[in-house]
Amino acid sequence: MPELPEVEALARHLRDHAVGRAVARVDVASLSVLKTADPPYSALHGRTVTAAARHGKYLDLDCDGVHLVAHLARAGWLRWSDAVSPAPPKPGRGPIALRVHLGGPGFDLTEAGTQKKLAVWIVRDPSEVPGVARLGPDALAVTVDEFAGVLAGRTERIKTVLTDQSRLAGIGNAYSDEILHRARLSPFATAGKLDEESAGRLFASLREVLTDAVERSADQDAARLKAEKRSGLRVHGRTGLPCPVCGDLVREVSFADRSLQYCPTCQTGGKKLADRRMSRLLK
Questions:
Q1: pLDDT for 143-158, tens place per residue?
Q2: Rounded-to-integer distance, Cα 268 and Cα 218, Å
Q3: Coil, helix or strand for 223?
Q4: CA atoms of 81 and 282, how far apart (whole Å)
Q5: CB proximity list for 237: less than 8 A, separation 6 or greater
Q6: Which one of 83, 108, 110, 117 is CB 3.0 to 4.6 Å from 73, fit for a cystine?
């Protein structure tokens, strides 16, 4: 899933390549991707792109006061082309859900797989998007005091709090694993019970991981961002491989629709966390 660093890089790419161009046409290949009807997507036609921004994991293209806001979900992506095909994509065929023509160049919003969760809103203000309206402080801009407030009194696991967009905006499954690994904290630690030193370490880790990822992504074009993300991960998606810090094997805990990765030596004092699929063997 694209998270804060990748969406920030996509917003920067659009600022560099789309701002100042007029929207010639929008093609919708999947009607289910559109979550609003007023204003219609045709309201973008002829408008100049004046800004591109990010709200948590939402991408916002401002077209002179009418916003195209997209959430890429788990398998969505933005595919830029310096010479986008003038032919509209065929509805229901292939991964393209929506195409924006910018007078020669343009981009496709695509989604791989069968779970179609890519979503697009056409609004006059991004706050009209329910998910944007519910966002907590941005993870890249949150202050140490705000972060302390995010943790205070929470009885959930720290992994859950870090990925709750209403508490902290922008962090998903991958970067939460990386932040917790760098902070040397168990993903199952209770958020509100972290001592001051651990909470400070977690805040520093959050800043370091996200800032490093944004800097690595800054000079990459949209097509290379996924590979850049994978290359910078220490534990996420590396189950069974050696931890680059201590050499222990990276372990995994699986849930119904996702999994987390961690290093026992670095994060849990050598203890293996119970995996539902393996719980019988760990008793």
A1: 999 999 999 999 999 9
A2: 33
A3: helix
A4: 50
A5: 174, 230, 261
A6: 117
